[in-house]
Request: fold
Amino acid sequence: MKSLSKTSDNQKELAGDRVMGDAKAILGELRDATRALVEGAPTRVGRAADLHRALDVDAPLGWQVYRIAIAVDPLSTLPFVPRAGSMQRVLRQARERGWSEGIVAKMASAYEHFNDFVARTSGSRGNFDALIASYENEASGQIRMSYRAAAFRANARVWGIRARTDYRAVIFQEGSKPGSETLSLVHGRIDVQSSRPNAVLALRRGVIYDMGGAPVGSLGTTRVLEEFCSKPCPRLETLKGTDGESEVLRLDLLETATPATFFGHQLFPNWGAGEPQTCWGVKALSTVPAEVLLIDFLVPRAWIDPRTARVSVHGNLADMHSVYVDSETFTIPAKEQVKALGSDLQAMHTPDVPRCPELVGKMLASLDCAPGDFEILRCRVRYPILHSLTWPIVSAPQ
Reply:
């Protein structure tokens, strides 16, 4: 029996690279055309619900189109690209509801190029989706993004709740007592929705941990930032349990399947035992199935070296809160990144969190802080693993 040569394997790998490269270019063209469609809407579109109303199409179709528009990686848009009939409905509605013909024509052309590429490479859309999945690069031991996306969809159905974005922002500053620091924390859930009439979302446990993972106190109660919440604002309740207090959002008081947005704020002044910190970060536990976990943390520029920024992911199925204290023992092979954005709040603009610069700017103003004194660091996680802890961190200069 003849064995396959290494040359044959190499040829397959090169062919796969070419297909993936071409697919990325084609999907990038479609993503850009879709983004132009969203930005060129006759009325302001800041989220998926705005788009489906502007186009007068059903909510799932509007959500698909919006997801394509806000994607960073073109290949990640493939699951959201509508079938031909649905896309023709989008184009027809755009023409009838006041979009520029040039924008609609660009979208139609990009979609035609996509369909032509699908036909050439695999014959049908189903075959094409399978082909791209088979070529998907997977680093040794890393969890595939496709698995995480599938887990998100499954968990959203199992738990009856989902969010477009799970957001955390933390501002560190010097405290009023010697050797202490003050921490200001914003947490938000953007476009969170339930598929059950009795859904309640556990928002947080009111405990803060130092850089070594030890609990150092309670964050107290949350102040609702109603200006940035949806209307009506989801109701926040505090529940007392055997291990302390926790806060929940009463989504059961809202209409089922209606997206809601919530932002809350806590202030923790003068924490620390007088020992200087050598690193700063955020331990964010994922407690809701979300498409994106976005973590921003602002640290005084004089305190840190941005080049030391890194992130790790942890999880313990037996006790999900234990990773706050014992992170290193329970590490999950998920590769994420932390980016330094500088000090300009406008660099924080993102479709994941509408009005993000304004939100953080108001928090800085309430603390009597100038944005230029801080380095902004951001960690964006696609399809965070439910009940895992994401820990971006940055260190002091050596």
About this structure: The first strand starts at residue 161 and ends at 174. Residues 286 and 387 are 5 Å apart (CA to CA).
